[in-house]
Amino acid sequence: MTNAQPDNAARETDYLAVHEDVVKRVLDRQPADEYLYDLAELFKVFGDSTRIRILYALFESELCVGDLAGILALSPSAVSHQLKILKDAKLVRFRREGKIIFYSLDDDHVRTILSMGMEHVEE
Amino acid sequence: MTNAQPDNAARETDYLAVHEDVVKRVLDRQPADEYLYDLAELFKVFGDSTRIRILYALFESELCVGDLAGILALSPSAVSHQLKILKDAKLVRFRREGKIIFYSLDDDHVRTILSMGMEHVEE
DNA sequence: TGAACATTTTTACATCTGTTCATATGTTAT
DNA sequence: ATAACATATGAACAGATGTAAAAATGTTCA
Known about the structure:
The structure is a homodimer. With about 120 residues, chain A is mostly helical. Chain A is built from seven helices and three strands.
């Protein structure tokens, strides 16, 4: 949730774009705001240590809510809440076996993103 | 900021780890909490649409605060705030030319992470 | 030096987010 | 059907976060 302005409020007040030509060129090449927004939403999901810990745990093995609660020392409820967010973002999937539901990473994309991030952090 | 508990509060209450063996194995292989925390912090930086828009603008060209303010239709102050966060996370760097400061993406790591994310979003 | 400009910083505030607690849903086995 | 268990959901609260507004810092040039 970012801007909401009467269009060229920018120029009028104190937003002085120093390089008009560059600004226009960059604006032309920007991806649709919708994509950028979705992208931010995706990273937002990765941007929480509980969820990251869940994802890394699932890196090793499929796990049920109880397992994750044990691993993270969190309540099953808290885990379930975060799993819902991860499910909605299509970062994890699940399969049911009796009353137990096993969660796992959704695809290799997730692994790649995590690895890229870790590389940057390790520098 | 996640856990802070008298160690095995987990087992005592209602955290029933269904698969003890799996839990132990996963716990052994988890990266240090410190890394996971830093990783979450990194993604948190990507997880805001204003910052994503800044990064994508910088994808095209180095830009000064005024340019970015024009492109995003935000105040220079707001832009500067977000740039500070991006600087601290080492996602952008800058060079000064007179009174103007030009910002640019810090390295190709950043581009890669953005691209990976976009791929996932485009599915 | 002092005026003009580019950027940064501080404070304040409204919104968003994660966890807890209580309750509900769904599954299995008796 | 009922008890026991695994997971999910809803409401509420505390802490984190982004933006606006105002003031400060730093740089150039006359």
